[in-house]
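chain below, 74 aa
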Amino acid sequence: MDMSELDSAKSENQKLRNYISLISAEIELSQRLIEIKQNFVNSPDLARLTVPILERINKIKSDKAILENELNLN
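prediction:
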């Protein structure tokens, strides 16, 4: 394996690690969102608490889609 192949493998490995981290973060945030919705039913603060989490989940999904494309996972 020459240096360019090694660098390519390292880069792909790092992208896969990032992808796994994004999946983990998405799962954690989704679970947290469920907990908040259960604990703040009919609360006027529900939107204030959930909107930032939903925005972050959407950003994670976007980042995941980019990596899926780069890694040919789709």
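The mean pLDDT is 95. The chain has one domain: 3-70.
thats it, cya
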